[in-house]
Amino acid sequence: MDDLQIPEELPDAEGVRHEHPDVTGGWLRPTVFGAMDGLVSNFALIMGVTGGTTDPEPVVIAGLAGLAAGAFSMAAGEYTSVASQRELAEEQVAAERREIRDNGRAEEAELAAMFVDKGVDEDVARVVAQQIHRDPETAVAVHAQEEMGIDVDELASPWTAAFSSFLAFAVGALIPLLPLMLGVTSSWPTIGLSLVALFACGAVVTRITSRSWWFGGVRQLVLGGAAAGLTYLIGEAIGSRIG
């Protein structure tokens, strides 16, 4: 370690500190997918029923049923998915804690080897691993992050995921319903409002990605519009046969 050059004074980190969006807290993915799914699925459902009947009442009933059923389904699915993922992560962390407790020296050597693989000098890696293993819980957290990519302090909450998904789906599904609930009998306001909302949602999502806003907007507009158009044709075909 004689050749290791350590700066006498580190630069002030305050000038480079910046914030990142919470991408692991369990709310972002269910919120995005919930809103998109609610808008697309209920828009398509409403258009499908519209294609099969000229009576606006069953269209409104179907839209409301689709909103309620979809919101509860999304919430239940997200809760189960995130809870299972969290339980698996907790079990893996518990297994790592047992390994550190029973084979501390071997785990310390393993951590040092991982640091070496990342480009750290072997002598420095051994010292750092030794210092980390002074606190067993710190060692567990570092091993979980390095070996499994698990942040023990940032495990997603299933309740957060479920609530976010429920609320987002309901809001998205309500958009194509609004004109009908206000007494509009023509399907064009529903189509227009839904297409605008599709573009807006796609554009907003790009604020947390590397895509341009117009690309995200057009992509979501095309996909959602195609789903609604195809469902309308299916409803029209079925309605003509039943009628």
Query: Which geometry do the CA atoms define?
Result: elongated
Quickly give the structural class: mainly alpha
Structure annotation, total helices? 9
Radius of gyration: 26 Å
Helix % is over 70%
**How would you state the average pLDDT, rounded?**
88
For the secondary structure, the number of strands is 0
Question: What is the H/E string?
Answer: HHHHHHHHH
Report on the biggest sheet: none
Low-confidence stretches: none
Beta percentage is under 5%
**In whole angstroms, how far apart are the ends?**
86 Å
Describe the structure.
- By secondary structure, the chain is an all-alpha fold.
- 74% of the residues lie in helices and 0% in strands.
- It has helices at 28-52, 56-102, 104-117, 122-132, 136-148, 158-174, 178-181, 188-205, 213-242.
- α1 (28-52) packs antiparallel against α8 and α8 (188-205) packs antiparallel against α9.
- The model has no long low-confidence stretch (mean pLDDT 88).
